[in-house]
């Protein structure tokens, strides 16, 4: 049995950060130290617990079986330590995060849980809004960080991964050939909508805005009600809808990139951002789910 009172906090934190980021180099960067120092701390921890916790090859860093077992206890150990330290100070740090509604937030519970485990003294404020409003708040210093689709006029930010879009509607949505495509949109300034309408114009397909709602959630409700077609990330298309590009001869849409923007530079904030980016990448839903759902639903219709 391990005597937890003798564990070194920095060594345990190094182990957890390596586990989260799956890289000695990124862990060192997140903790503001060197790769060599991280390796020494891990080695001392492994000697103390009597097990190899991390297996490292030239191409891969992963937890050993003992490391996987120890990870939850290590997180609890760090959380208890941080709570004890936090109680000595009345000041709590705040971290405001904006996530664009078109990006969606299936990862949000994981992001919040990971940030809280990393720094229990952190008060996390989350704002879900349209990308343009979030960017305005970010540029004015109201929000510390935002996760959005990359805008054409911005090249800054850390890339979290690619995302792919499709045209979605309910399986029983009816569109007659030659009639304007009935679109649902959240805002005339929506970058995704502008890309979609340009694609329709290029393809010579007429379209009209049947539903203009306040925010992406209202658009999702309109599409789910069978009122219109709209464009969504394949990861977060409304439940009960299918991809209808081939069915109605709609043009393919270019992919985009999900990016994390932040101007925070202090070591603790940088570490939080590293954890945030890692959790987002790790828990993204596979982009192919919507394609599979479309195929399954359409097969069901054809068999009916």
From TrEMBL:
Protein name: LysR family transcriptional regulator
Family, similarity comment: Belongs to the LysR transcriptional regulatory family.
Molecular function GO labels: DNA binding; DNA-binding transcription factor activity
Alphabetized InterPro entries for the sequence: LTTR (IPR050176), LysR_HTH_N (IPR000847), LysR_subst-bd (IPR005119), WH-like_DNA-bd_sf (IPR036388), WH_DNA-bd_sf (IPR036390)
Residue ranges occupied by any HTH lysR-type domain in the UniProt entry: 7-64
Domain of life: Bacteria
Its job: NodD regulates the expression of the nodABCFE genes which encode other nodulation proteins. NodD is also a negative regulator of its own expression. Binds flavonoids as inducers.
Pfam family name, one: LysR_substrate
Keyword entries, A-Z: DNA-binding, Transcription, Transcription regulation
């Amino acid at each position: 049995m391990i005597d937890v009172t003798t564990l070194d906090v920095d060594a345990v934190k190094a182990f957890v950060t390596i586990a989260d980021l799956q890289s000695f180099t990124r862990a060192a960067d997140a903790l503001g130290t060197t790769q060599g120092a991280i390796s020494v701390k891990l080695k001392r921890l492994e000697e103390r617990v009597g097990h190899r916790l991390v297996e490292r090859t030239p191409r891969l860093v992963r937890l050993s079986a003992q490391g996987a077992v120890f990870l939850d206890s290590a997180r609890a150990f760090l959380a208890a330590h941080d709570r004890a330290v936090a109680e000595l100070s009345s000041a709590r740090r705040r971290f405001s995060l904006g996530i664009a509604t078109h990006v969606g937030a299936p990862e949000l519970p994981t992001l919040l849980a990971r940030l809280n485990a990393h720094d229990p003294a952190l008060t996390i404020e989350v704002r879900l809004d349209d990308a343009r409003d979030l960017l305005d708040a970010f540029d004015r210093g109201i929000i510390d960080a935002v996760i959005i689709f990359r805008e054409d006029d911005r090249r800054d930010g850390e890339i979290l991964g690619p995302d792919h879009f499709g045209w979605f509607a309910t399986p029983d949505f009816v569109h007659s050939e030659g009639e304007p495509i009935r679109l649902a949109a959240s805002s005339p300034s929506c970058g995704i909508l502008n890309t979609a309408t340009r694609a329709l114009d290029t393809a010579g397909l007429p379209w009209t805005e049947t539903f203009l709602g306040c925010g992406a959630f209202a658009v999702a409700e309109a599409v789910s009600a069978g009122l219109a077609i709209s464009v969504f990330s394949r990861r977060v298309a409304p439940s009960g809808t299918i991809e209808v590009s081939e069915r109605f001869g709609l043009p393919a849409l270019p992919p985009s990139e999900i990016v994390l923007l932040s101007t925070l530079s202090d070591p603790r904030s940088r570490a939080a951002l590293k954890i945030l980016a890692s959790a987002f990448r790790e828990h993204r839903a596979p982009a192919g789910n919507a394609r599979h759902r479309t195929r399954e639903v359409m097969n069901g219709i054809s068999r009916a």
